[in-house]
TrEMBL record:
<protein>
    <submittedName>
        <fullName>Histidine triad nucleotide-binding protein</fullName>
    </submittedName>
</protein>
<dbReference type="InterPro" id="IPR001310">
    <property type="entry name" value="Histidine_triad_HIT"/>
</dbReference>
<dbReference type="InterPro" id="IPR019808">
    <property type="entry name" value="Histidine_triad_CS"/>
</dbReference>
<dbReference type="InterPro" id="IPR011146">
    <property type="entry name" value="HIT-like"/>
</dbReference>
<feature type="domain" description="HIT">
    <location>
        <begin position="4"/>
        <end position="112"/>
    </location>
</feature>
<dbReference type="InterPro" id="IPR036265">
    <property type="entry name" value="HIT-like_sf"/>
</dbReference>
<feature type="short sequence motif" description="Histidine triad motif">
    <location>
        <begin position="96"/>
        <end position="100"/>
    </location>
</feature>
<dbReference type="Pfam" id="PF01230">
    <property type="entry name" value="HIT"/>
</dbReference>
Length: 112
């Protein structure tokens, strides 16, 4: 498989890691859109949120608990946004489930 995020998860492509365990990897975005902008990906390939099912509840709970802990550690006291894009019209540029976490600036609503 020629998946950019799979290669990052496997250590074939370097990343600025923020957190890693056996299930997920968090790393800083190479083109940050906020003072804090990192991605969280499952190490196992999943195309997008559209491919998730009930059986993925434990993984998603782990992702969101990790995001909350990392944001607390990074001092994101005024809040943060978690975004996952699905498909071309949704703005998904890498076909591997990933969550953008943005913080430390005011984020407009609705998003672009």
């Amino acid at each position: 498989m020629d998946c950019l995020f799979c290669k990052i998860a496997q250590g074939q492509i370097p990343s600025n890691k923020l957190f890693e365990d056996d299930k997920i990897l968090a790393f800083y975005d190479i083109d940050p859109q906020a003072p804090v902008h990192f991605l969280v990906i499952p190490k196992q390939h999943v195309d997008s949120a559209a491919a998730l099912g009930e059986q993925d509840g434990e993984l998603l709970a782990h992702v969101f608990a990790t995001i909350a802990r990392l944001c607390k550690e990074l001092g994101c006291d005024n809040g943060y946004r978690v975004v996952t894009n699905v498909g071309e019209d949704g703005g998904q540029s890498v076909k591997h489930l990933h969550f953008h976490v943005l913080a430390k600036r005011s984020l407009a609503w609705p998003p672009g």
